[in-house]
Amino acid sequence: MNNYAIETVGLNFNFDNQPIIKDLSLQVPTGSIYGFLGPNGAGKTTTIKILLNLLKSPSDQVFIFGKEINHNRIAILKRVGALVEQPAIYGHLSGKENLNNRCLLLGIKKTKTDEMLALVGLTEAANKKASKYSLGMKQRLGIALALVSDPELLLLDEPTNGLDPNGIIEIRNLMLDLATNHGKTILVSSHLLAEIERTATHVGIINRGKLLFQGTIDELHQLSKPMLEIEVDRIENASEFLKNAGYSITAQTEKRITIPFTNAKDSGILNSLLIQNGFTVSSLYQQRKDLENLFLDITKNN
Ligand SMILES: Nc1ncnc2c1ncn2[C@@H]1O[C@H](COP(=O)(O)OP(=O)(O)OP(=O)(O)O)[C@@H](O)[C@H]1O
């Protein structure tokens, strides 16, 4: 018996005879924050809708908590919370009233409302009309609504889309709290590699309906091979010095030397070494790849 909250086995899905999801085998470990990464139109929302049985999958291709979705729909969906596209919020009601309504609908005690408001950091704004909430607050209310039934699994479709940097940080911290302190498994989709790298423990990368990569965040880093850019004076001398010290130089411009990034500690050692030998280091920068460059790497490696 595996320990996947979500498993799809060679999932295929068509819209009007057009293949949209192609032979997709996702494995989302229980307790993970699984970053589901792909450019616009890759098939993320379609996959999430299939996982929620909003779109019907062929039988024996989608398993949630080890159970086939089409045959166990109600039992599975009771244990799943989701935020897909716009959260279903009544703007003329306060955050508290929105949550009270959801409790009523699900036959859950209203005391849950205050617990949820606190969890997503909306206690102070509890009595404010939801239409007056910022986009980030609306997203957090949407997540609170999804959490009312205390689901084990949370599916979040691009929850940081359109948010300002503060809103993005709030959602990121909320996801970390939910996974770390409340034992939730979270699948979160995004088209931004940097966004996923900051929270996810596991990553699946999809393009045109096909899974290009799946693994832990460390496995992704091994593949994406981040670089370290060093801005230093007397560039020719510095370059010569680094080569003699055993570093391999990937690129060099008038101002910068680029070497493969290993880890933060090694970067610190390199910095000290240059300074001790009379060089002035004005910046050390870990260059992260964007999704397009990562795609190129993955395709090269396959
Ligand atoms: N109801 C539909 N009928 C026909 N085609 C659809 C439908 N919904 C989505 N598609 C197509 O399926 C493909 C995948 O769309 P999907 O929304 O799943 O992508 P996505 O990765 O979530 O991207 P985005 O972030 O832009 O929503 C796209 O080519 C889209 O045009």
Automatic annotation (TrEMBL):
Belongs to the ABC transporter superfamily. This is ATP-binding cassette domain-containing protein. GO terms for molecular function: ATP binding. InterPro entries: AAA+_ATPase (IPR003593), ABC_transporter-like_ATP-bd (IPR003439), ABC_transporter-like_CS (IPR017871), P-loop_NTPase (IPR027417). It comes from Pedobacter punctiformis. Coiled coil: none annotated. Residues 6-233 form the ABC transporter domain. It comes from the Bacteria. Keywords: ATP-binding, Nucleotide-binding, Transport.
